[in-house]
Amino acid sequence: MSEAQDKPAEGRKIPAPAVTIESKPFWDAAEQGKFLIKRCNACGEPHWYPRALCPFCFSDDTVWEESPGEGVIYTYSTMHRSPTGPYAIGYVTLNEGPAVLTNFVDCDLTKLAIGQKVKVKFQATEGGPPVPVFSPV
Questions:
Q1: Dihedral sign, CA of 68, 69, 70, 71?
Q2: Which InterPro entries does the UniProt record give (predicted)?
């Protein structure tokens, strides 16, 4: 593998997310650099992706909660065949418990590891709000 293949993609564009009535508070907070998750008042479980109904007990008594956006890599995959160069995607298990599907940025892709500590950042999108991405701590 060449040295160029080991470097993260520079300038890889991420499409704008779909903003719905349910998710709008999340995207508004993302524009301010805040990472929100939902917590159910009925069963107490935090969940991701933010939605009105709790995926555990189906209660509609859920509230927004700011998360520090810290966790560990649960799994990941490095994509080598890309016009913009290699990039990595995977799941992060937040310290609160939920798993987040994400991109990994600002790192040496060859040094990513399951169990590695990561923290949220926000990356600009093409014509929409910034999206959460994660980088090693």
A1: positive
A2: ChsH2_C, ChsH2_Znr, NA-bd_OB-fold, Thioester_dehydratase-like
Note the pLDDT of residue 2. Answer: 39
Give the three-class secondary structure for 29: helix
Domain count, the chain: 1
Q: Judge whether 3 lies within some domain.
A: no
Q: pLDDT of 3-61, one tens digit each?
A: 434 444 456 788 899 999 999 999 999 999 999 999 999 999 999 988 889 999 999 99
- Type of residue found at 131: V
Count CB-CB contacts under 10 A for residue 86.
19
Contact of 17 with 129, CB cutoff 8 Å? yes
Using left for φ > 0, alpha for ψ between -120 and 50, and beta otherwise, residue 17 falls in beta
For residue 113, the enclosing domain spans: 18-136
- CA–CA distance, 16 with 49 (Å, rounded to integer): 16
The single residue listed with the structure tokens 């520090």 is 68
Classify residue 2: in a domain, yes or no.
no
Residue 107 lies in a domain: yes
Could you give the CA distance from residue 65 to residue 71 in angstroms, rounded to a whole number? 16
> What is the spatial distance between Cα 24 and Cα 62, in angstroms, rounded to a whole number?
15
**Residue 64, amino acid:** W
